[in-house]
Amino acid sequence: MYNSRSSLKIPTSPQEEDKGEGKVYGNVFAELESVDLPLGTTLRANMAESESLETITEHERILQEIESTDTACVGPTLRSVYDDQPNAHKRFMEKLDARIRNHDREIEKMCNFHHQGFVDAITELLKVRADAEKLMGQVSDTNRRLQDAGREVTAQTEEVIRCRIQQRNMATTVEKLQLCIPVLEMYSKLKEQLESKRYYSALKTMEQLENIYIPRVSKYRFCQIMAETLPKLREEIKEISMSDLKDFLESIRKHSDKIGETAMRQAQQHRTFNSAVQKQVTLSCAKPLYGLNGRTPLHHNGLSTEAADEEEMDEEVLTAQDLVDFSPVYRCLHIYTVLGDRETFENYYRKQRKKQARLVLQPQSNMHETVEGYRKYFNQIVGFFVVEDHILHATQGLVTRAFTDELWNMALSKVIAVLRTHSSYCNDPDLVLELKNLIVIFADTLQGYGFPVNRLFDLLFEVRDQYNETLLKKWALVFRDIFEQDNYSPIPVENEEEYKAVVSRFPFHDAEIEKQQFPKKLPMSQSVPQIYSQVKEFIYASLKFSESLHRSSTEIDDMLRKSTNLLLTRTLSSCLQNLIKKPHIGLTELVQIIINTTHLEHACKYLEDFITNITNVSPETVHTTRLYGLSTFKDARHAAEGEIYTKLNQKIDEFIQLADYEWGMAESDGRASGYLMDLINFLRSTFQVFTHLPGKVAQTACMSACKHLATSLMQMLLDTELKQISMGAIQQFNLDVIQCELFASSEPVPGFQGDTLQLAFIDLRQLLDLFMVWDWSTYLADYGQPTSKYLRVNPSTALALLEKMKDTSKKNNIFSQFRKNDRDKQKLIETVVKQLRSLVNGMSQHS
Q1: Mean pLDDT calculated for residue range 135-164
Q2: What is the domain extent for residue 101?
Q3: Of 74, 114, 532, 601, which sits 20 to 30 A from 104 (CA to CA)?
Q4: Per-residue pLDDT at 90
Q5: Is residue 705 a part of any domain in this protein?
Q6: Structural domain contains residue 445
Q7: What would the pLDDT profile of 743-795 be if each residue is shown by its tens digit?
Q8: Could you say which DSSP state residue 521 is in?
C-alpha cells in the first residue's frame, strides 16, 4: 500500500490526469475491500499502550517531517531513526504502519461519501454515449457533404492565392526596380562623364553612388560588381588626370617663353609710360635734360614713348591665363583632393616644377653672343614665375609663398652667376647695354609680381663696370683710328662756315686768330675736335646705362664722372703714350701733339660743365668727383716733350755718325765739316717749328740738343778706340765747334738770356783753347782757382787727349829727336803728362 503510493507520478496532460485518477480510485476501492477496520483499530490501541510517551512524540515528529519534506531530503530524517535506541526502528515501522492505516481509513471514508455520485455519473455517461454516436454520424455526413461542396471553392481559392502571389511578386519587383533604376541611371551618367572627360563630376557621381544609391540595393550582384568597379575607375581617373598634368607641364615649358615675353613687354610699356609722364612733369618744372647725342629723346630698346603708347593702345593686354589653359592643374588638384591624396599631388607638382626651374635656369653656351639669347633666357624665367604666381593665387595650398620664395632665391642666385659669367664674354658695349635694359625690364616685371629684385640691381653695378670696360675698349680703337688718320698739322679754315663748324665741335676761342682774315689756320690738328666729340659721345653712352636704375642725379653724376675719368686717365692717356712712342712719329708730329694736348687740357672745364648740364648736379656739391683730364694731358705733354728731346738727340747722333775726321791730318781744311753744317741746318729748321710750343719747351729742347751735341763731340775726342790725334785734326775739330758756338749765339729759340746757350759748349771750348794755345803753364798754375781760364777742363780729360797727341808725335817724327825744338816739345809733353797724372791721382785720393 505504501509502495504503491510512493510510486505515483504527476500527470502531464488532462488525459493522463483522467487515467491517473481512474487508477487511484481503483486502488482505493481495492484497499477498501481488503482492509478489516476493527482489527486495525485493536492493533493501534495495543501499540499505544506499549509505547511510552516520549517515543510516540519523537516518532510523530519524524513522520511529520517525512510527510512535509521533499523526497530528496528524506535520507537524513530516516537516518535519525536508526541513530536512536536499539529496536527503535521497529517501533517506528509500527508507528508508520499505523499512520498509513489511518490515512487509508480517511481515504475510504471519502470514497464512500462520493461513491453514489460517481455511479450516477457513470450511468449518465452511458446514456450520452448513444447520443454521441448518433451525433458523430450526423457530423460525418455533414462533413462529407461540405467537403463535396467546397472542392470547387478550394480550387478557385487556390487560383486566387496563386494570382495574389504573382501580384505581390510583381509589386515587389517594381519596387525593387524603382530602387535599382536610379543606381543604373547614376552609373550611366558616370560612364558619360568619363567619356566626356568630366572627371571631377564623375568623382562626385561615384561618391553619390557609394554613399547613397548602392547601399539601398547592395544585396544585388550587379551592385556588388559596380562597387568593385568604382575603385578601379578612381585609379583610372587619377592616372588620366596625372597624364593631363604631365602634358600641361610639358606644354607650360614650351609656352614659358611666350608668357615671359608678354609679361616683360607689358612691364616695359608700363615703365615707358611712367617715364614719359615723369618727363612731362620735369619739362614743365625745369630745364630739359640732354637727349642722347643731343638729338632725340631717350629711348628704351629702340621704342620711343609715342610708339610705346600706340603699341600699348593697339595691343590687348594678355595674361598667363589667356595664353595657357590651367584647367588640367585645377582638375587634377580637385580630383586628388576628392580622392584624399592631395598631399601626393602637391609634392609631385612641386618636385616637377623644381626640375623645370633648373632646366629653365640653364643657359645656352652661346647666349652671350646675341641679345636674343639673353632675351629668350629672361623670357623663360619670367614665364616660369608668372605661371607659379598665377598658381599661387588661383589655388589654395598647391604652392605656397615659401615655396615660390625658395624657387626665386635659387633662380636669383643662378641668374646672377650666369650673367656674371656670360657678361664677361661681351666685348660689344651695345650688347652690354641691351643686356642692362633686359635686366631692368626683367627685374621690374618680377618685382611687379612681388619677387624681391634688389640683388639684380646690385648686379647691374657689376654689369656697369663691364659696360664701362667695353666702352673703354671701343673708344680705345676710336682714339687709335683718330690718331692714325690725323695729319698732325694745323686745321685750315677757308671761310666762316668752316670756322663755325670747328668751333661748334670744340670750344676754341682765340681773339688773335678770330681777327685774322680767311683763310687761316687753327693751331690744333683735326684730331682735337674729334677727341673732344668722342669724349662727349662716351659720356652719352655711359649715361645710357644709368637710365632706369632708380638712382639719384648725384649718383648718376658720380658714375659719369668716374667713367669719364677712366676714359681720360687710362684709355686716352694710354693711346697718347703709345702714339708718342711710335717710331714713325717725328718731331713735327710731337710738336703738334703737345699743342693738341694743351688745347684738350683747356677744354676739360667744358666737359665738367657738359656733365653738370646732363645731371643737373652743381659742381660745388661736396662729394662731386672732379675730372682728371688736366693731369692726363699734362702727362701726355710731358711724355711728348721727353720724346722730342730723345728724338732730337737721336737725330743728332745720326749726324754725328756721319762724321769722318782724318785724325792724323797735318793741317785743317779751313772750313767746318759738312756733316756738322747739315746738322746745324737741321736744328735751325727744327727749332723754327717749335715757335708754336710753349717757350720753356722750345728752350729746353734747344738747350738739350746743344748739350747733347757738345757731349757727343767730347766723346768723339775721348773715344778709347781713337789712339792718335794730330794738331791738324784738333784745328779742324775746333772749326766745327766754332760753328756750333755761332749757332748757339744766333738764338735759334727766343728767350735765352745772354750766352746761356753757348755755355753748352764751354767745356769743349776751354779744352780746345788749351791745346790750340798750348797754354799748359797757365792751366797748371791756375788749376783749382775759381778764376782759372781753363776751369772747365778736367785733368783726366786733358791727360787722355794729350797722350793721344804724344803718341802721334812719336810715330810721325822719327827724326824729331835730332831737332832741338821737337825734343823740347816732347819733353814738355812728358812733363805735362806727369803733372796731369799727379793731379788725377790727387783727385782720386781726395775723392
Answers
A1: 90
A2: 63-196
A3: 74
A4: 79
A5: yes
A6: yes
A7: 988 888 887 887 888 888 999 999 999 888 888 888 888 888 888 888 888 88
A8: E
Instruction: Output the 3-class SS for 321-344.
Output: HHHCCCHHHHHHHHHHHHCCCHHH
| The Cα angle at residue 316 between residues 314 and 319, in degrees rounded to 5 | 150
Final residue belonging to a domain, choices 396, 416, 451: 451
**Residue for grid cell 481515504:** 107
Mark residue 518 as left, alpha or beta (left: phi above 0; alpha: psi -120 to 50; beta: remaining).
beta
Identify the H or E element spanning 770.
helix 762-773
In the structure grid, which three cell numbers stand for residue 6, read together? Answer: 510512493
Residues 442 and 474 in one domain: no
Helix axes 371-394, 342-360, angle to 10 degrees: 170
Residue 113 lies in a domain: yes
Asked whether 674 and 682 are in contact (CB, 8 A), the reply is no
Residue 833 lies in a domain: no
Domain final residue pick, 609, 627, 645:
627
pTM: 0.62
DSSP string of 737-761, one letter each residue: HHHHHHHHHT-SSTT--TTTTGGGG
Same domain, 662 and 791: yes
Judgement on whether residues 588 and 692 belong to the same structural domain of the protein: no
- Where would I find the H helices in 286-324? 305-314, 320-323
The more confidently predicted of residues 378 and 280 is 378
Q: Which residue is listed with cell 702727362? A: 635
Nearest alpha-carbon partner for 66 in 106, 99, 101:
99
pLDDT at 565 over 80: yes
Domain match, 617 and 679 both: no
In which band, very low, low, confident or very high, does the pLDDT at 222 lie, cut at 50, 70 and 90? confident
What pLDDT sits at residue 821? 64
Regarding whether 257 and 382 lie in a shared domain, the answer is yes
| Residue 224: pLDDT over 90 | no
Give CA–CA dist 577/642, Å, rounded. Answer: 11
Q: Which alpha helices (DSSP H) does 424-526 contain, by range?
A: 429-448, 454-485, 496-505, 511-515
Q: Residue 517 corresponds to which amino acid?
A: Q
- In whole angstroms, how far apart are CA 680 and each of 103, 658, 764? 196, 14, 17
Give dist(CA 94, CA 333) in Å, integer. 107
| Structural domains in the chain (count) | 4
CB 757 within 8 A of CB 745: yes
Phi first, then psi: give them for residue 491, nearest 5 degrees. Answer: -75, 120
- Statement to judge: residues 443 and 490 lie in one domain: no
Residues 655-682 pLDDT 10s: 999 888 888 888 888 888 899 999 999 9
Same domain, 365 and 484: no
Confidence of residue 552 (pLDDT cuts 50, 70, 90): confident
The answer to whether 642 touches 673, Cβ cutoff 8 Å, is: no
Q: By C-alpha distance, which of 422, 423, 384 is closest to 404?
A: 384
Q: Which residues on neighbouring strands pair with residue 300, listed in sequence order?
A: 303
- My answer on whether 574 and 712 are in the same domain is no
Query: In sequence order, what are the beta bridge partners of 41?
Result: none
